[in-house]
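User: Show me sequence and structure for the first protein, then do the same for the second.

Assistant: Starting with the first protein.
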Amino acid sequence: MRRKTGTLLEREGTRTVAASLISILIGLVVGSILIVIVGLISPNLGPSSIGDGIRLVLFGIVSTGRNAAGVLTWGFNPQNIGNMLFRATPLILTGLSVAVAFKTGLFNIGAPGQYLMGTMATLAIALGIPANAMPKPLLWLLAFLGGILAGALWGCIPGIVKAFLNINEVLACIMTNWIAANIVTWFFDATKVFQNTVENTKTSYIYKTTYGKTLVDGVWTYVEGNGVSTAKLGLDKLFPGSQVNGGFLIAILFAVGVYILMTKTTLGYQLKACGANRHSARYAGINDKRNIILSMAIAGALSGAGAALYYLAGNTEFFWSTYQSLPAIGFNGIPVALLAANNPIAVVFTGIFMSMLNIVGQQLRNLTAYNEYITDVIISVIVYLSAFSLVIKMFLTRRSKKGKETEPTPVKAAVPAAEPTAETVTAEPEVEGEEGGDKA
């Protein structure tokens, strides 16, 4: 049994998955302990609340609420699962954005700014072009491509200063994040035309993309149901009552495309070579400056695609006053990539997991006296441990080597030597001169 365990731990992929699972497990344990502590010291909670809180943290995604007796019920919850997939869509794409940069030796902390620029371009195109100017699918495609292009161009900036001026990309990304926040705020504040004035309860919000710009009695107005939104592609039948749409499937296609790019193409090899050692790559004839810029452009395009898919859903609203904060989705792409060990396919699953914790937090708030910030603590612990995933992998490697060294080496049975036979015995050669001399 020890030999089999050691063999598994000798595999790089196994250690990577184990490190991520250990980080997740520790995060869930810390969250459960926190629930117990809060339940013991809070007068509004008790033993039953503690049990409900722990069960919701672990299995909240399949909770269906409470029955008439106030007992938690469990089962398939299509609304929760559909919302989880919908919220996972931008997380997957920002996670891919960070993962691509990591693969090329860059730390793309500029995903929030790229996400904001993608948001601005997407909404400006979807809401600025009249709804009857072209078919809605074409308008959707233009808005989607506009978001991708805006994110790519904004991602190029840190790549350019890194390639030509050797300025650390982290510093450049932080600066571009806040510049993007102020540009987006200025744009929507200056134009004002995109601000929602139809729904009186909304303040400082931009129209949903389902509101189309239409000429009514000689005046351009926004009419609900006349705009664009991402097709459901039948997912609304599987998960009725949720926000899910075809954007989730598009995110999966992006993940597959990035995997093929990084592992099956010459460009992907060049990008990883520059990440391993840009000077060696240059010596080998690879244009390191071009690849650094291209890597950040790809990363920015993925972040912009995440923003486009999120706001083209038609049921999401953008709060335009963003200069005081940056979108958390951009930063959450970092733990998504770290937990996935920068593997594009694994990013899909870690993005879903992070989205699940968000839904669990809402369940915890709605069904118990706890608040959803407990799940934020769990995410924080997981993020913290994911940064030390390399340390965990080193620990697992040491355990594997130790188990291999302590394993007794099998001793082969000694084979008895064969007795000589007549055929194998050879006569000793005669020494010339001895007998001849006597005869003489």
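Switching to the second protein now.
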Amino acid sequence: MRRLPAYLAASLLLALAPGPDNCFVLAQSAAFGAWAGLCVAAGLIAGLCVHIALAVLGLAALIARRPRAADLVVALGACYLLWMAWGMWGAALGDARAEPLTPLGFCLRGALLSLSNPKVILFFVAFLPRFLPEGCRRRALGLGLLGALFALCAALVMGAFALAGGALAALLRDHPAAALWAGRAAALAVAAIALWILLPLLRRRPKA
């Protein structure tokens, strides 16, 4: 496939670009340790797999044509992130005891963020099919392979963010005052991610 090198480069750049996924992995790993960030990253990849399956089955475009249903999923995900940010406020960064979630709990957080991120939905509806060869007979297989390559790029990048956040958490364990303020900064970061996701919905809100 002649377009494959360009697709891999674009996927890596998109994975590296600042966005809700990377910021959330960094915030969670800094707040609760690298293991939490890696679990969140695993959940995000699981969410990507759902998006890939929808694209392969042709359901992603169908969902995009039902904006109200998609907006409801986005709004619910953003509200959950705001609730999470409220719970993180006041917790010291690097203090995993502040929120005793299991690895599955952190995975579910990542999956919810991925499924409610409108930019991910747009990627699989508008961007991914452009890299299929013209007249591709096995469209479903092609979309699946391209989606898997993007998920691999995203996994590598988010894993690096999780390890970086974990290193920050370890550094702040011996500085309680700094850890408290950094924990509040992480809470604000999660709240900002929620508002980031909600902003397109607010812009489309009809005027009275």
